[in-house]
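Still learning. Any example?
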Amino acid sequence: MNSYELMVIFTPILSEEDYKTAQKKYESLVAENGGSVVHTKAWGLKSLAYPINKKTTGLYWVMEYSAPSSFNEKLKVQLLRDDNVIRHMYTALDKYAVEYNARKRSGASHSSHENAAI
């Protein structure tokens, strides 16, 4: 099992209920294919750096998950077929990124030099 992080930008015209349904859809897809969802975070409505399909905002969502590497192709096909998805990107996480994300979620400091006097 490899660790990955998926970021999806959904169309801003989704209702709150449809936004949550879309998130559950991809969480279920991971579970159905032998993976597990580690953490999800809905960022909500954010401005885009540039217009995409004449839209200047999007609903951002991030999911950290573990799955077999063969799963990502199935995930990509589902994301490309979904009309509510404006953009998506998944990234493979190494062990340091996984540890960093876990520390960040638990509220631990990110750097040991954070409180050092300069």
